[in-house]
């Protein structure tokens, strides 16, 4: 170390020299040596760079190098990301994954082998031929199953998800599309006509009832009130002449 040690340093250094850079760091910063050609310079960082892991001590915090096959690590013996050509497994970088595992080239990790999973067969479809269910005697019916889990690279592949077999149906004629449409149109018109007829009849009935009610009210207003007949028994009662 160059004997010229300074206390007025920059860049997070607590002490430094013109030749070696930082000699110690301010609290909570990590000290790491960076190589520049044949020379190593000390620097102080808030976190360790890629390929290093940090260790904290009472007097100084240091950045130490990961293993050669490790890109980033938590400690020297626990890697979190491997360099190209290696696969991560339980904190270690391996060229080949253990038995029962497979190499995932996307994540560069050793992962469990996943086999294909499918649902049960669906019921057989109606017997059809050329997209129709009538006008033929022999046709085909199909059933399908859905893929629930796709396999990984080394997993068991999925089986066929569609099956077809011959079928026989009772021969029947196909209803012509134009005729069927015409019948539906006639039924709709008839239904509308019946509804209109019922509506007219209901309207006539309501009008007749309203007219009768108005006629009765008019007759009640024009007819004179009958006078009350005198009580003959009261008129013929004997008169008391005792007084």
Automatic annotation (TrEMBL):
Pfam family, one: TSP1_spondin
Domain Spondin-like TSP1, chain residue ranges per copy: 116-170
A GO biological-process term: Wnt signaling pathway
Top-rank lineage group of the source organism: Eukaryota
Sequence ranges assigned to domain R-spondin Fu-CRD in this UniProt record: 11-110
PROSITE patterns recorded: TSP1
Gene Ontology molecular function: heparin binding; signaling receptor binding
Endpoints of the signal sequence: none
Compositional bias per record (Basic and acidic residues), positions renumbered to this chain: 175-219
UniProt main location, coarse: secreted
Homology family: Belongs to the R-spondin family.
Role of this protein: Activator of the canonical Wnt signaling pathway by acting as a ligand for LGR4-6 receptors, which acts as a key regulator of angiogenesis. Upon binding to LGR4-6 (LGR4, LGR5 or LGR6), LGR4-6 associate with phosphorylated LRP6 and frizzled receptors that are activated by extracellular Wnt receptors, triggering the canonical Wnt signaling pathway to increase expression of target genes. Also regulates the canonical Wnt/beta-catenin-dependent pathway and non-canonical Wnt signaling by acting as an inhibitor of ZNRF3, an important regulator of the Wnt signaling pathway.
Assembly and oligomerization: Interacts with the extracellular domain of FZD8 and LRP6. It however does not form a ternary complex with FZD8 and LRP6. Interacts with WNT1. Binds heparin. Interacts with LGR4, LGR5 and LGR6.
Protein name: R-spondin-3
Lineage start: Eukaryota, Metazoa, Chordata, Craniata, Vertebrata
